[in-house]
Write a structure and sequence with these properties.
mainly alpha, 9 helices, two-stranded antiparallel ribbon, 181 residues, disordered N terminus, 2 domains
């Protein structure tokens, strides 16, 4: 018998293959796809309008460009550059900023600080599925499966079925471990 999670995973993979644009940025519920930012030197990110790497500094790039760079840098383990890009964003209370501050704190091994950022991100935007997934993954890492399941239930209740946030957290709960997220 095929499990619900296996069916959801198959559905999501089919959707991602059928619509590659969803996997590129996809808002807050899909992982980033590498861009030239991966190849930029430390302290720089890719600026598509200039077709070049540019220094990370406040006001030089719009927040959406910086956000995509933050996501890519954080996933690549370039946490200092990701923090620099976060600091350059104009609204430090934005739920995306708070979420990635939490992600970085969790990657640095500070779940207490990460939890406070995730909670703030969710308070600012209860529909931030990515913050809920990352919080759930942190709870899985601490063997608090019941709390992780609560976040998964919230993701589903908020229309997140089949999203990367849903699938990644469900996989973490099922396996008892997270990958690099």
């Amino acid at each position: 018998m095929i499990s619900f999670r296996a069916t959801a995973l198959a559905s999501a993979l089919t959707l991602l293959c059928a619509a590659p644009a969803l996997a590129v940025g996809g808002g807050s519920s899909s992982p980033p796809t590498p861009t030239p930012t991966s190849d930029c030197p430390a302290g720089q990110v890719w600026d598509q309008t200039r077709d070049a790497c540019v220094p990370i500094q406040q006001g030089a790039l719009d927040d959406d460009t910086l956000y995509e760079a933050v996501r890519e840098l954080a996933y690549a383990g370039r946490l200092d550059d990701a923090l620099m890009a976060l600091a350059a964003m104009s609204d430090q209370g934005d739920d995306r900023v708070l979420n990635y501050r939490g992600f970085i704190a969790r990657q640095q091994g500070d779940f207490g600080r990460a939890r406070s950022y995730y909670d703030a991100a969710i308070a600012a935007n209860p529909d931030n599925l990515l913050a809920r997934a990352y919080l759930g993954m942190g709870l899985v890492e601490r063997r608090y499966t019941a709390g992780a399941r609560q976040q998964l239930d919230e993701i589903l209740a908020r229309g997140g079925e089949g999203t990367w946030a849903h699938i990644a957290l469900a996989e973490a709960i099922d396996s008892g471990r997270t990958t690099r997220y």
